[in-house]
Design goal:
The chain is mainly alpha-helical. Helix content is 63%, strand content 10%. Helix 4 runs antiparallel to helix 5. The chain binds zinc ion (ZN).
Length: 178
Amino acid sequence: MPHEIASVLTCKLCNEKIAGPGLIVGPGQASGRVAQFMEKLTAHLGARHPKELGALHQKALEFFGLNCVMQYVTQDDRVKYQREFLRWSIHQVTLDARYSNEQLDDAAASHAEACTLAVVNGLAPALGIPEERLTRAMENVRPQIAALFLEPIKIMREKLQEPEPPPMPAGVSVVKVG
Ligand SMILES: [Zn+2]
């Protein structure tokens, strides 16, 4: 069963606080009161931020259009590209996790440090080598270990964040409408 929690939402654009009966949590139909709250939120945007509300309507139409187009199969490169471009642009709006190069470098460096420590702790007693000696030896290869960690996480970031729009296939031109 869905349940409701009490909510106060603050408008990001003007800081006005809007209280409502609650937002729905869990699957199920929104109750009438939740629908009324949504209307209140929409009405505020319409009255105070009509330009932004217009852009939201445009985004909603794009998402609807994408879902419609995804119900069909096509061999037409222009439609495929348009579908892919829509998917990409919606993804850019909803994406919540973005990582900078510095964050990835830090993550790789700390993984390399933990890896070095684990190798020293595991191998020094097993091989009967003094820990300091093995630590020094491992320090020499730590940058290479960090680079090995960095490569796959960079590839994953590009794959997940998709910083660049999809490439336009050869022979497809875009006609700007409106
Ligand atoms: Zn506002």
